[in-house]
Amino acid sequence: MAELIDGKRISQEIKDEVRAEIEAGNIDACLAVIIVGEDPASVVYVNNKKKACEYCKIRSLSYELAEDTTQEELIALIEKLNGDDTVDGILVQLPLPPHINEDMVIEAIDPKKDVDGFSKRSVGALSIGTKGFVSCTPAGIIELLKRSGIEIAGKECVVMGRSNIVGKPMAMLMLRENATVTVVHSKTRHIEDVCRRADILIVAIGKPKLVTQDYVKDGAVVIDVGIHRVDPEENNGKKLCGDVDFDDVSPVADAITPVPGGVGPMTIAMLMKNVLISAKDR
Questions:
Q1: What is the CA radius of gyration of the chain?
Q2: 116 given a catalytic annotation
Q3: Is residue 16 part of a domain?
Q4: Which one is catalytic: 6, 15, 88, 93?
Q5: pLDDT in the model for residue 42
Q6: Looking at 15, 49, 57, 273, which residue is catalytic?
Q7: Is 207 among the residues known to form the active site?
Q8: DSSP label at 211?
Q9: Catalytic residue among 6, 88, 114, 116
Q10: Could you confirm whether 12 is annotated as catalytic?
Q11: Could you say which of 81, 96, 121 is where a domain stops?
Q12: Is residue 68 domain-shared with residue 148, that is, in the same domain?
């Protein structure tokens, strides 16, 4: 049976480190969080980020805007925060309402305050290996692997999914850690065969329980980025599942992340770390 990679424990370690550094250095770090509308999942995420800020001794500013807020009004607020020297990070909770162009909003954020690591400049910096903020979920996965004692250098890694938020930056980060990386997606032929080559399989495809033993070689490390609400009666009493069929895969994997409690907590922990980095740079 696979060893569980404990995201809750590791994320707590990182938040404790951030808090200790802020207290020791008397650092006044500040994160501004903007949410437009009342998407239930977004509200939960924003509240979790506020709680993490409070724990880490990071000052948080909350801007809860109406669903009908215009793109111009939102960008004006971002520009105001860009010019506020007391604000170290700006986070716009996605998704935004359909009438707002997400790309234009993300690009409006000062790269020095882009603690989500979503802007073209941040992604470009990652791709050429220069300083910049890294998208929090992929950065969190690197920490999960390292702090679990899993060697990355020289390993064959397969990333399932090519999104701008997870798949692409994940592949670049694994390359930076000297893994040999393959990205597979919906158009990849013989996808199970490719995945079975992986020493480290990272799954971010957005389809519940798609990955079974057919995709996983014996002794692989499996990182499940997905999270889905499901009928507990069909999921051994659990309300959530990932992109990986945990019960099917865990007997053959060497290590695996659970859902919940794996990758999820790491995203917010790495956000806190990025805010600290921004505050120190300032």
A1: 19
A2: yes
A3: no
A4: 93
A5: 87
A6: 49
A7: no
A8: B
A9: 116
A10: no
A11: 121
A12: no
Which of 94, 121, 148 is the last residue in one of the domains? 121
C-alpha separations of 225 from 44, 113, 185, 200, 264 in Å: 18, 25, 15, 13, 7
Residue 256: what residue type? Answer: I
150 and 261 share one domain: yes
Q: Say if 127 falls within a structural domain.
A: no
Structure tokens at 140: 């969190």
Contact 67, 36 (CB under 8 A): yes
Q: Specify whether 248 is located in the same domain as 144.
A: yes
* 3-state SS string for 111-166: HHHCCCCCCHHHHHHHHHCCCCCCCHHHHHHHHHHHHCCCCCCCCEEEEECCCCCC
Mean pLDDT for each consecutive 10-residue tract of the chain (282 residues)?
A: 95 98 97 94 89 98 96 98 98 95 96 94 91 94 98 98 95 97 97 98 96 98 94 83 96 97 96 97 86
Kindly state whether residue 273 falls inside one of the protein's structural domains: no
- Provide the 8-state DSSP code for 35: E
3-state class (DSSP) for residue 178: coil
- On whether residue 2 sits in a domain, the answer given is no
> Distance between CA 59 and CA 99 in Å, rounded?
31
Two tokens, residue 247: 């019960």
Nearest to 81 by CA among 22, 34, 122, 135: 34
Please provide the size of the chain in residues: 282
Domain region containing 193 = 136-265
Supply the CATH number for residue 93's domain: 3.40.50.10860
Query: Residues 76, 82, 84, 87: is their CA dihedral positive or negative?
Result: positive
- What single letter denotes the amino acid at residue 170? M
For residue 129, is it left (φ>0), alpha (ψ between -120 and 50) or beta? left
Task: Compute the distance between CA of residue 166 and CA of residue 87 in angstroms, rounded to an integer.
Answer: 26
CA atoms within 13 A on the CB side of 77: 20
